[in-house]
Amino acid sequence: MGFFSASQSPALAAEEPEARKKPFYASLWVQVLLAIAVAVALGYFSPAKAIAMKPLGDAFIRLITMIITLIIFCTVVSGIAGMQDMKKVGRVGGKALLYFEIVSTVALLIGLIVGNVVKPGGGFNVNPAGLDAKAVADYAGAAKAQSVTDFLMHIIPTTVVDAFAKGDILEVLLVAILFGFALSSIGQRCKPLVDLFDALMHAVFGVVNILMRLAPIGAFGAMAFTVGKYGLASLGPLVKLIATFYITSILFVLIILGAIAQAVGFNIVKFLVYIKEEILLVLATSSSETALPTLMAKLEKLGCSKPLVGLVVPTGYTFNTDGSSLYMTLAALFVAQATNTHLTVMQQITILAVATLTSKGASGVQGASFIALVGTLMVVPTIPVAGMALVLGIDRFMSMFRGLINMIGNGVATLVVARWEKELDRETLRRNLA
After folding, report:
1. For the whole model, what pTM was predicted?
2. What is the pLDDT of residues 367-387, one digit of tens each?
């Protein structure tokens, strides 16, 4: 059983006895759902007031992201330092990366196939010269071409402190793995330091427990701003693209991830019910990072070991972006179809190949996938990058499902790797999810 057992979890288990006695409206997921409903109503009837609620959502996201690096560092360091088999760390990392690459590539392929079959951009007949290229200029500046070497060099921080200051998950993960291996090799002399990290982790998850009480307020602020600023009416012209992406995403979870879950030994629907608070939070904030701390805690509660969760989940936020992969190939074809740009089979394969790399930079932060897509289109000059202005206005709505599928995919990936490592048996997993 992992670190967050029923008797130990600082973020979850402490509330369980009380949670059984609480009325349903005291549950976090109910409160978040009500907050989203009120936010949508406010955004529709009073857009100006709704837009003014933005700081509430931004503040909550910043509160969560400020402690993510600490959670990852403490979890990974104490987990690796306490492991007897150091080979397991490399084995877990290798299996996770193999799984990430296979599933995210499948997602890219599905986006490409759906785009060719449904043709969401057909009939737009947009003249690229008439588009507002300035609206995409800032994103184009941020979307620099990135080689494999550049990507690998980016993982290494300038200094240890710099990794935490920038909040870069991969950089912090690298530092944590090195510290964990060092403490493990030194052994007993570093036990006080290992105990310190272990105690600090309890304290950090105690902070998470406090911050999650503010989740309904954060969800309200973020959703109110989204509806108030962009308005439900703005979805009209691009409703086919939005509907295509949403339906494809749902089917990807139920069919592709559902088949993977079934093979591993659990039901995908029961897993979605199990992480319902995280699902609502990601939908409201358009960022999968807000759900990272509690997702990690819940996965450990299911029986995944502490170091495995600490390695797979943070790494997955960069390498296992299923939602972003679906979006990138589908949106690329939409822009081409809307601007009447014919793409040959070879050009579509090029988009797929480039997106395989650029999608790895699309982390859980809202808007990162849009930048990654601009970078992809810049490599295929046939498609006018200015065409991205067509989807810029609805990117916030698209990012809701991008982040959601990314988060669900990482949860499933962690359980898959845990089963490969024989940390979980089918009966234990089914019983915990029940």
Report:
1. 0.80
2. 566 777 777 777 777 777 777
